[in-house]
Design brief:
The complex is a heterodimer of chains A (497) and B (112). Chain A has 17 helices and 13 strands. By secondary structure, chain A is of the alpha/beta class. Chain A has a domain of 260 residues: Amidase signature (AS) enzymes (Alpha-Beta Complex), CATH 3.90.1300. Chain A has an eleven-stranded mixed β-sheet with strand order 1-3-2-4-6-5-12-13-11-9-10, sandwiched between helices. In chain A, strands 7-8 form a two-stranded antiparallel ribbon. With 112 residues, chain B is mainly α. Chain B has a domain of 43 residues: Glu-tRNAGln amidotransferase C subunit, N-terminal domain (Histone, subunit A). The two termini of chain B are 42 Å apart. Classes of the chains: A alpha/beta (497), B mainly alpha (112).
Chain lengths: 497, 112
Amino acid sequence: MTAGKEIAEKTNTVDLTIDEIRGAIIEDRTTATALATEFYDRIRKEDSEIGAFLTLCEERALKQAGLIDQMAAEGQPLPQLAGVPVAIKDVMVTRGVRTTAGSKILDNFIPPYDCTAVARLEAAGAVILGKLNCDEFAMGSSTENSAYHAVHNPRDKSRVPGGSSGGSAAAVAAEMAVATLGSDTGGSIRQPASFCGVVGLKPTYGRVSRYGLIAFASSLDHIGPFAKTVKEVALVLRTIAGRDPMDATSAEVPVPDYVAELEKPVKSSGEALKIGVAKEYFGSGLDPEVRAAVEAAIQKLAELGCEVVPVSLPHTEYAIPAYYIVATAEASSNLARYDGVRYGFRAKAGNLSEMYRQTRDRGFGTEVKRRIMLGTYALSAGYYDAYYLKAQKVRTLLTRDFDEAFKKVDVIAAPTCPTPAFRLGEKVNDPLAMYLADIYTVTANLAGIPGISVPCGENHEKLPIGLQLFARHFDEATLLRVAHAYEQARSPLVVRH
Amino acid sequence: MKVTDKDVAYVADLANLELTEEERAHMLRDLNSILEYIERLSELETGKVAPMAQVSDRYGVDESRQGSDRFAYAIREDVKDGLRKSLPHDEALKNAPDTDGIFFEVPKVIER
């Protein structure tokens, strides 16, 4: 079977994958402009019921598509992601395109520069369709904290898409973009990927530049891709990864060809990859159908030749409490910049101090204020040692857990979330219950290791379930290889509508 | 209840938040419920554990050296030419709620 024949059989260009689009344009079966127009039509038709987009940037998209088509017409070599319709979570700044972070405090903010990850996608030929809805400042697990509107899960519109990158996951699931970028501070890529039945990757801390990512918690924030398949996610990662002088924490670590690495076998000449399974990720609170699906996925990896090894991550139960101190402490500092002086919303007031307070009070939503309050409290005199310093020490213990486990195994397998997507409104009045939706994802942010969520089945209500895999720092190649091998072996899941 | 009304008022003040009466009541309830959950961190003995502020502390640091030499990997040559240009004045002011074209303008700072 040739790739060309496969594409020729596809009547609907919406079905083209990232790696097929460039070829389709070169062979003149479609144009970047036609693709962009088709996706905008789809967005106009579908998104009124989903709510994934906050802003469309048609002018920028069609200009880029025109450039690609001109290059193709002139027979110039096309860049890797030429004509690929993508969309960006609205926490990444885009020059000349409104960027809100899902907040009213940035309702009218037009950034003067591009986020590095966005610029790298565009330089690789991708066409940016628009900006995606999310929880305000990426704080939430359901996208219900968006100051604009909620996002409905394309797989069941009465349910949340997860969060905070709910718009990014929903846009891919509803085929309103081929790939999207999200951000993950405590699970905000992997959890919505799981809820919407798509693939979502949080790379290693330092793998992708954070320049131009509106900061929530700087030591935990990551940018990463969503797509329908592991291969497509690998392609996007290859494009956006690597050292950026504009982010001092972006690492000077070579970027492998993730796509080529996918094809390596998980077992060769007796050497099998070792998959760790930690009982701490299968405890009480795990939905039985999720457990069954994830256990079946691990069984599938064993059938592929991987060696399944029990490991222990004994401090896991302390991850959420440590996370909510570290994340909110950093957030309270990062969000101090929103004062109504240089950009964004300003409330009218008689003096400067009143202006600050009223701007922030009216500009921020409830969850953002709650986290600023918690973080400020944890950092305040008398509580710093008991909360912030304590949480930082526990962060060391959680990271050591992974260090020890990765002496024995190459990849760790776990559920992405304890349950499938919950209903809109179900957890909105109980912040703690909402925080616990991230129980299996936050530790990877504290430790900085890469994690991916891959669809691994459905429950009896046809709600998607995600398999989560972790790997060593900067070993996305092995992570993606195992995810890809599983995806190829898995029985086909219904993802088309 | 660990956090009191007074704490909420004090922390809101530190964070430059106004908070309505209703918001203060909710905040009091939520902070106490979250902090009660967070309290379980005290079960762990961490007397000899080093705090971890950053993942990137773990890479490239040369533990055999002292002081800032440990971070030699992050040192670069001074840039003399080709410094990144600052944002042009008009672009920097473009998003400002209030400006006179030269400065950001704010309400009166000192009452006379």
